[in-house]
Specification:
about 425 residues, mainly alpha, Leucine-rich Repeat Variant, two-stranded antiparallel sheet, Interferon-rel_develop_reg_N, ARM-type_fold, IFRD, Interferon-related developmental regulator N-terminal domain-containing protein
Length: about 425
């Protein structure tokens, strides 16, 4: 049994069973009428997705997986909805086809959004919505569309979930920041996020402070403060709407970033978050994470948030698997796996020659060729010359044959691909 996910005390932690059957067996179980059988099958599928890449299986069974998961989200119990949402997020992480990714986004987000507001919902649906959007959205407009839905939930006074209001808000802000981290500042809408800085800086609950700091720090790093400042005192000199029509002046932009920086650092000296460390030095620099024998370098705070969110969703084992074997993850984190040598190398020389030395008899001009000399040597020497140079059994012929056989063998080994050719 393994536990995956850690939502800071929320209900997104799942206990996964050990599995003994192939994944195809558990997919067939999703068609059963018994809810408990479907729930057990979903838990087993999640376990398999988290322990071994299923790229080939997903490619062949994409439609079945997608619509079985969606059916469970639409009609299942609260537990089945949560498990199916989790499995759907794992599916989104495994898809490499853009057409399939777009289909996943188009078919999933309406159902997940609806489930987000259901009375028996939990945080797995929210995390799945964020993951599906992060990996499957085609453009920034699609990402911001989901961010707006999450933003609306952040500002709802009533808590419609089964979790506590604070836990729910932590999950919402984390998901919103996770999606924001995937966008470029210049692509963001000029009207959607007005007042975000004011809202995050006004959160007084100590439990909410770290996620609010992370959001503010990310906004600071993106370098487009006027899109988040709204009617704050940050926009002292002009209406911020003007900044959508003309470039921000460097002085206003610098002043806005400085104000955000002060908000992050003020009154949070006891926090141990990465956001505070970033704000204190005003330059994130780099953070390193060990991946086996290699090191993953996080060069931006956006990557730190992405790592934190995805690792929470996948669990330690699942994240290690995907960062090593999933090209989508390697692209996100700019991580390149070093290929290990098989230990067997074939060194091929650049050039090989057969060298023959011949001692010229006295009186023979130096410019004469080998055959020109033959009339001037006796019969015995001619026989020796013939045996050394002309005969198929001569040392020269045997050496030439050995050299050709060696080159032929090297060529065959290179074609098989088991050896590395070295100069």
């Amino acid at each position: 049994m393994e536990k995956r996910g850690d939502a800071d005390g929320c209900d997104s932690t799942v206990t996964l069973p050990s599995v003994s059957m192939p994944i195809s067996h558990y997919v067939d179980e999703l068609f059963k009428k018994g809810a408990s059988k479907r729930e057990d099958a979903l838990a087993s599928i999640i376990r398999i997705f988290s322990s071994k890449m299923q790229t080939e299986f997903v490619e062949k069974n994409f439609a079945t997986l997608l619509y079985r998961f969606l059916n469970s989200i639409k009609k299942g119990s609260a537990r089945e909805r949560g498990l199916a949402s989790n499995a759907l997020g794992l599916l989104a992480m495994t898809i490499h086809s853009r057409d399939k990714a777009q289909e996943t986004y188009n078919e999933s987000t309406p159902l997940l959004t609806k489930a987000l507001n259901s009375s028996s919902n939990h945080l797995m649906v929210l995390d799945s919505l964020a993951v599906v959007t992060f990996f499957c959205a085609e453009n920034s407009d699609e990402v911001e569309k989901i961010m707006q839905i999450i933003w609306g939930n952040i500002h709802q006074e009533s808590d419609s979930t089964g979790t506590t209001k604070v836990d729910w808000k932590i999950g919402l802000i984390s998901a919103w920041s996770f999606l924001l981290s995937s966008l470029d500042g210049w692509r963001l809408s000029c009207k959607y996020w007005k007042g975000a800085v004011s809202y995050f800086s006004s959160l007084e609950d100590e439990v909410l402070r770290d996620v609010a700091l992370e959001a503010l720090t990310l906004i600071h790093e993106m370098g487009s403060p006027s899109k988040f400042s709204g009617d704050l005192a940050i926009s002292k000199s002009r209406a911020v709407e003007d900044s959508c029509l003309s470039p921000e002046s460097s002085s206003l932009k610098e002043e806005s970033n400085e104000e955000i920086h002060k908000l992050v650092t003020s009154g949070v000296s006891d926090s141990k978050s990465d956001a505070l460390k970033y704000a204190q030095v005003k330059d994130f620099g780099e953070k390193s994470v060990r991946i086996g024998k290699q090191t993953l370098i996080l060069s931006t705070f956006a990557q730190v948030l992405q790592l934190k969110f995805i690792k929470k969703f996948l669990g330690r084992e699942g994240f290690g698997l995907h960062i090593r074997e999933n090209e989508l993850f390697q692209d996100v984190f700019e991580f390149m796996i070093k290929k290990q040598d098989s230990g067997c190398k074939l060194y091929v020389s650049e050039q090989e020659k057969l060298v023959k030395c011949y001692l010229r008899p006295r009186g023979i001009p130096s410019g004469s060729s080998r055959d020109d000399m033959l009339p001037f040597i006796n019969r015995k020497d001619k026989a020796i010359h013939q045996r050394l140079h002309k005969s198929s059994n001569s040392p020269l012929s045997k050496t030439r044959t050995q050299l050709m056989n060696k080159k032929r063998m090297q060529s065959q080994e290179r074609n098989v691909g088991h050896f590395i050719s070295g100069d």
